[in-house]
Amino acid sequence: MSQPTSSQAVVRIGSRASRLAQAQAFQMQAAIAAALGAPPQDAGLVAPVTLFSTAGDRIQDRRLLEIGGKGLFTEEIEAALLEGRIDCAVHSLKDMPAEPPNGLVIAATPEREDVRDAFLSNSFARFEDLPPSARLGTASLRRQTQALHRRPDLQPVLLRGNIDTRLAKLDAGEADAIILAYAGLRRLGLQDRARQLFDPFELPTAPGQGALAIETRAEEAGSHWARALDHAPTALCIAAERGARMAMEGSCRTAMGAYPVLTDGALELVVEAMTPDGRERFRRQGRLERADRARAEALGRSLGEQIAVEGGERLLLAV
Predict the structure, then answer these.
(1) Please, where are the H alpha helices in 36-134?
(2) What is the pLDDT of residues 179-218, one digit of tens each?
(3) Do 45 and 6 meet the contact criterion of CB atoms below 8 Å apart?
(4) Would you say the pTM of this structure is higher than 0.85?
(5) Residue 316 in 3-state DSSP?
């Protein structure tokens, strides 16, 4: 293996240490190395990966909102980025807080994976087949409330941990079924475990689901390698979703989802939120004939604000 020349850039990558996070980080390592003009065998030299154990990964017995929210998946990595120990961070975008810390930005959003939620069970082929009072495992307030809205008889089971941990708990009989992001299953080659995929228009997914975020220091956001990784259609859709999220408090206390569809430059967006018990659903739709990132974010904010006004305090999970 050759050594990078003195003129060749080196981009140090930071990532969570879970198997899924590593798969995502090494996928981006290959893309960054290619953008830097390095051969595939030199990816580890020009884009070395440092793995971090985050508080969000270590604490598994409580909901995120009880221990500090989504920032617990990013704080250690972002500190390393601000201190100059790494040059970029690879995150699952849905795990990022609504706004990055001062001095950091999302420099690129690579092309998105499949956005849909997946139903997994060893005994039942479809969500609709679950028997009365079946145990449904999820750590997502959104997934829980969407399920309870359709089936108020179900018994939610808090199921945190990485994908392997959740699958092991399903296989051990701790739940009759679980719901996971299909993108994560695909990235780990586990897509065959999915028994059913949900329509994201009917059940809008978390803002950023299926997408990665490449976070850098603000002054390095325009680097040529970051521009090479950015996928404009994905970035446009993410802008709309995150606009809705920011309008609706942007924390784990709100069960909200958003789903955009981009067709020939026109953007359609559906945003919904539910009360924590799943009984009430608030839903808005909007369309832009000619969308750009600023207008997409504004549309998301507008729809999110309408829902926030209508639902008010009923949308917030008590802490």
Answers:
(1) 43-46, 55-58, 64-67, 75-82
(2) 999 999 999 999 999 999 999 999 999 999 999 999 999 9
(3) no
(4) yes
(5) strand
Write the pLDDT tens digit of every residue in 242-269: 999 999 875 568 899 999 999 998 999 9
Q: Please, what's the b/e burial string for 36-70 (b: 16 or more CB within 10 A of its CB; e: otherwise)?
A: bebeeebbebbbebeebebebbeeeeebbbeeebb
Q: Compute the residue count for the chain.
A: 319
Angle, vertex CA 277, rays to CA 283 and CA 74, nearest 5: 80
C-alpha separations of 56 from 26, 68, 100, 133 in Å: 21, 9, 17, 30
Asked whether the predicted pLDDT for residue 5 surpasses 50, the reply is no
List the structure tokens of 95: 């795990």
pLDDT at 66: 47
Phi, psi of 106 (to 5 degrees): -85, 110
Instruction: Out of 57, 87, 95, 114, pick the active-site residue.
Output: 95
Contacts of 64 (CB under 8 A, 6+ apart): 56, 70, 72, 139, 252
Under 8 Å CB-to-CB from 120, ≥6 apart: which residues?
167, 170, 177, 178, 179, 180, 193, 194, 195
Residue with tokens 């020349």: 5
pLDDT of residue 202: 97
Q: Which residues contact residue 126 at a Cβ distance below 8 angstroms, ignoring those fewer than 6 apart?
A: 119, 195, 196
Beta carbons within 8 Å of 192's beta carbon, 6+ residues apart = none
CA–CA distance, 288 with 132 (Å, rounded to integer): 42
Please confirm, yes or no, whether 87 is among the known catalytic residues: no
With cut-offs at 50, 70 and 90, classify the pLDDT of residue 98.
Answer: confident
- What tokens appear for 289 in the block? 């004939």
Question: What distance in Å separates the CA atoms of residue 76 and residue 164, rounded to the nearest whole number?
Answer: 23
Per-residue model confidence (pLDDT) at position 305: 96
**Longest CA pairwise span in the chain (Å):** 65
Q: How many helices (H) and strands (E) does the chain have?
A: 11, 13
User: Is the pLDDT confidence value at 30 over 90?
Assistant: yes
Mean pLDDT value across the chain: 91
